[in-house]
Amino acid sequence: AAAAWSAGHMELLDRPFLAWHLSGGTTELLRVEPDGYTVQAEIVGGTQDISAGQLIDRTGVLLGLQFPAGKALDALYEQGSGKNRAFKVKINDLTFSLSGMENKVKQMAEKGESKEDIARFALDTVCVGVFSFLFCFFFEAEYRHTPMFEAGLGAVAFAICFSFADVQIGGFSL
Q1: If 0-12 CB within 10 Å is exposed, 13-18 middle and 19+ buried, where does residue 172 land?
Q2: Which pick of 37, 145, 161, 169 has the fewest CB atoms within 10 Å?
Q3: How far apart are CA 87 and CA 65, in angstroms?
Q4: DSSP 3-state assignment of 47?
Q5: Do residues 145 and 17 make contact, with C-beta atoms less than 8 angstroms apart?
Q6: What is d(CA 58, CA 137) in angstroms, rounded to the nearest whole number?
Q7: How far apart are CA 102 and CA 155, in angstroms?
Q8: Per residue in 148-169, pLDDT tens?
Q9: Averaged pLDDT of the chain
Q10: pTM reported for the whole predicted model
């Protein structure tokens, strides 16, 4: 409801919608159906292993940053060279995996890559993974015209992710 209110579209809460929840413990896409004064929610997609926020925080801790590490990793991101391309995440049906990327981050640290480049790689990969998942998801005819709300990005770098593209989902610009 807070996402609909902040977007100025409370009327969208009168019909089914999607809620995208990215946080320290959850990376889920929910289909939400209004039911009187309550809602019924069903998980329709998301990560099958670690959440985006867990990956961000684990990367930060690996780099010696204080937990939670989202803000500090954001700051390092700006200083990264971008020489390492984002890691391709595995997407299977309506789920995706980030654990392989966690292993790649550990390998980069073991090789002596800079903290800044590791931070940039980790955040770029989360963003590419999220957008790749959403791109695949919206080819599912069942959900093609369903409005979507972000329900708490938490540790994930909202500004960095959404600077990747000007995405139109459900007719509203994110």
Answers
A1: middle
A2: 37
A3: 22
A4: strand
A5: no
A6: 27
A7: 16
A8: 666 555 444 444 454 444 443 3
A9: 77
A10: 0.75
